[in-house]
Structure of Tetratricopeptide repeat protein:
Amino acid sequence: MIKYILGGLIWVGLVSCSPSEQELLNAGISKFETENYEDAVAYFDKALALNPKNIKTYNAKSFALFALKKYEKVVENNLEAIKFDSSDYKPYYNMANARLELNQVEAAIKDYAKALQIKPNEADIYLNRGTGYYRLGAYFEAIQDFNFAQKLDENLPFVFYNRAKTYLKVDSIDLAIEDLTKMVTMMPNHGEAHYWLGLSRILQGNSEEGCLSLKKSRAMGFKNATEAINKNCQ
């Protein structure tokens, strides 16, 4: 009886002082923004304990788990989210991104397809699915997805970067150079893009400009540039 009364009193006190679901979600987001990802996950879990059907919380938790490189947990988190709401594209998209990291490429592509059924005009989904196709060696499908992504958003530099690397796989060197030139214009400090641009120009027969690009890459700290310079620029 005493334990029951004490328990009841404590419970009443916790209810009156306990943070709300929204407060817990906000606290988790705050922790995420300061890169305190473990604490962010803990807050999101508390919010989900109050409301296990809040897709926003699952999405936020996915980002924190992804930052922690807990990719299997990301998949588990989003499978749980889909049980409550399969009408939001984000759980499929977040799960697909994690599956790519786990090298579950075919499963990732299926998840991206489900995300696109719900949100067909989201450029990032096409961009990431194209990356999956690239890994499978399905270069035509990859280029097609990168083309869709570009039509939807002209300001995604990695559309040009990823498509350029795909063009190189199918010996479309001129198109690769065109895309890599756009990439380094948009992101001039991206050392790897300068590296691929340099190699592409050398393949095209323009060693002088190719070596200049490789030297820019080396100056930016891209580790493969020095070997490429020693091989191609003597």
User: Anything to note?
Assistant: Residues 188-234 form one domain. The first helix runs from residue 2 to 17. Confidence is low (pLDDT under 50) at residues 1-16.
